[in-house]
Design brief:
Two copies of one chain form a homodimer.
Chain A lengths: L4 E6 L3 H12 L2 E7 L5 H7 L4 E5 L10 H13 L4 E6 L4 H9 L4 E4 L4 H22 L3 H15 L4 H8 L3 H11 L2
Parallel strand pairs in A: 1-2, 1-3, 3-4, 4-5
Chain A binds a DNA duplex (30 and 30 nucleotides) through helix 7 and helix 8.
Chain lengths: 181, 181
DNA sequence: GATATCCTGTCCGAATCTGAACACTTGGCT
DNA sequence: AGCCAAGTGTTCAGATTCGGACAGGATATC
């Protein structure tokens, strides 16, 4: 799909880094690498990334994945719209579930199939873009979508939707015609 | 925490059903059971559930979990605010990831520890409640929170926040004082 | 069929909101 | 200092929106 994504890969194993670079080369505008979580924030500040691909296990002995979860928390603190894809070689179901519940948009197992990695990264970048465009909504658009939701939820009943929205029926009419609903 | 949750359990194995009933008995207001996905919608319509606990593998031979994913889709179609917790005995990481990406709020492995099941169900019910209260927001409140987000994102710069919201600076001032910001 | 209830769509004077304009403060730059 | 760009807070005539009221349609109940 898109060749315009900027990806940050955080991974300690040089072989994996190289392999990720190769896999992502054809489909991304730019791939930056980091060997560890050190210097994560400056890297995020330096480039406008669309996805962070994050290893969960920097220390071989430490297979709990807490390093990855911690890194993800730091990414989210820096920019809540930026999506994180986690990767691990040792993942169990419990860890995967925990990671997604904490906000990762995908979780992939090493070794990966290149095609799958590319698809995951590309989908995650798309989610980032959606989040960012949702953040930029004008007040009008926020109001419009709130009204649409209320109307849907009340099955088109204008009176009860107006009541739920806390405005008069006449006011809801005006807004509906304003937004073409 | 709460003893007021209503849970729907969809599970074909009678032993598992019984064991779920026992585990949930102390902490929930009401537990209903269904042996299969047949009659799902009527059951959802009859009671106002807070969580659906859904087995992924009704057919032994069928371990892909598609029955569970399908059931979850039906629950979400019926009520998008109602959370689903999936459970399985055969789950791999890939299936768990797929389930959460499709909107399950948790994914637990059989056999479970009762304590963990209760915690998962209770947390899911809390998420349902949060979603439902977010849906009921008055238009004023929607506007207020959109303004708060815009102000935060623009680091308190009123001019640029107003620009992003598509209103004049004066209008943003008025609203800020209206909402006490 | 008559009655009641709920919803719809529209009207209008009063209340509210609008944004350009103005005066002022702050911070950077030569 | 002097200058410039950008932000702040407020004012006011004019535009817009407010919601109660009204008439009509649809559906249910007796």
């Amino acid at each position: 799909m898109s060749t315009q994504d900027c990806v940050l890969v955080v991974e300690d194993d040089p072989d994996v880094r190289r392999s990720a670079r190769v896999a992502l080369a054809y489909d991304t505008a730019r791939v930056e690498m980091l060997e560890s979580l050190e210097g994560l924030e400056p890297a995020l500040a330096a480039t406008a990334f669309d996805v962070v691909l994050l290893d969960m296990n920097f220390v071989i002995a430490e297979r709990s994945g807490s390093a990855g979860l911690n890194g993800m928390a730091r990414v989210r603190a820096f920019d809540p719209t930026l999506t994180v894809v986690l990767m691990t070689a040792y993942g169990g179901v419990t860890l995967a579930v925990e990671a997604l519940k904490q906000g990762a948009v995908d979780f992939i197992l090493k070794p990966w199939r290149n095609e799958k990695l590319v698809a995951a990264v590309s989908a995650a970048a798309q989610i980032t873009r959606t989040r960012r465009s949702a953040e930029t909504l004008q007040l009008d658009a926020v109001e419009k979508s709130a009204i649409e939701r209320a109307l849907t939820r009340h099955h088109g009943n204008i009176s009860s939707a107006a009541g739920a929205l806390g405005i008069s029926r006449a006011a809801l009419y005006r807004r509906m015609s304003k937004y073409g609903l």
